[in-house]
Amino acid sequence: MSRAAVLTGIGAMVPDRMVDNDEISTLVDTNDQWIRTRTGIERRYWADPGVSTGDLAVEAGRRALESAGVDSVDLVVMATSTPDQPMPATAPRVATDLGLGNIPGYDLSAACAGFIYGLHSATGAIASGSCERVLVIGADIWSTRLDPEDRATAIIFGDGAGAAVLRAGDPEEPGAFAGFDLGSDGAHKDLAVLPAGGSRQRSRGEPLREADNYLAMRGKEIFTHAVDRMAGSSTALLERIGWHTSDLDWFVGHQANARILNTVADVMHADRERVLLHLDRVGNTSAASIPLALTDAAADGRLQPGHRVLLTSFGGGLSWGSTALLWPDVAALAPAPRT
Fold it and tell me: Major place of localization (predicted)?
């Protein structure tokens, strides 16, 4: 019988500092009603000075390990676009801080689709027989990479980390990932980009522009591509595994914008009541958004064992991906409510 990757633990972490829409309105020309109407976001959390992506990843990973009831894994896969530094990777440091020993660990960069890519990578490691358990972490701190005067990005992003423990198991048991659909399109690489620090920007031999230090996005175009790619990927996956939209208990998309998620549901003829929303409380947390949403929903009881769950994501690159599972009986460790 083939080996499957089975979700056995999940945990999440956000920073202490809560930033509501009223505070954002002191930075850019906007207001609470405009932000809620356009994005669905009410607040987000930003890391204090000295707190890194790796710090949040360690805490999320610790909670996921506790949720799974284990203190060891064979591999750490960390999805992030905001590592502690360009080199070395952040994952080995996270593994060390978690006391996991000299196991392999690597960073994976697929923007907001990173967590799904990480699950796919972990599933391959388990299916090959090289790993029995894998810790997958999605973590990003975008607050330090945002132009405080750019309304297109300043109102959207929050910081956070989410993690999941996967173990080898039976393809038919709850928690087993039923399949994946992934894709990318580099022709649209400039729709969301952070130039500073990369070899292309440095190879130009020109002085670093201040704008190069900040994330730049073309929001309207991103919206269209996000809807098309997540709906298409989700549909392709469901057809491959023999599920129907009507079978879904929860549709869990990348938490970027409530209008995007609702539009994807409409395109797929899915019930909007089944769209899991968490972005209102944390904003767009990039690679952390799906595990944060899952942890929160499992902790408060919305996600129940046996629920059929579809996960889908979209990010810069362009990159996108989807997977699905029957939700297992797992104890989710979410961050304590913050005010």
Answer: cytoplasm
Per-residue H/E/C for 102-130: CCCEEEECCHHHHHHHHHHHHHHHHHCCC
* Strand-pair category, 308-315 with 250-253: parallel
Residues sharing a CB contact under 8 Å with residue 49, sequence separation 6 or more, in sequence order: none
Yes or no: say if 161 and 60 are a contact pair by the CB < 8 Å rule: yes
Alpha carbons within 13 A on the beta-carbon side of 17: 12
AA identity, residue 169: G
Sign of torsion over alpha carbons 196, 288, 109, 267: negative
* Domain architecture of the chain: domains with CATH: 1-339 (3.40.47.10)
Confidence of residue 203 (pLDDT cuts 50, 70, 90): confident
Evaluate the CA torsion angle 238, 297, 159, 39 in order and state its sign. positive
Instruction: Indicate the pTM of the whole model.
Output: 0.95
- Per-residue pLDDT of 117-158, as tens digits, reads 999 999 999 999 999 999 999 999 999 999 988 888 999 999
**Which residues have C-beta within 8 Å of that of residue 52, sequence separation ≥ 6?**
84, 141
Cα(246)–Cα(298) distance, integer angstroms: 21
- Collapsing DSSP to helix, strand or coil, 3 comes out as coil
Helix residue ranges per DSSP H, 128-218: 151-154, 199-203
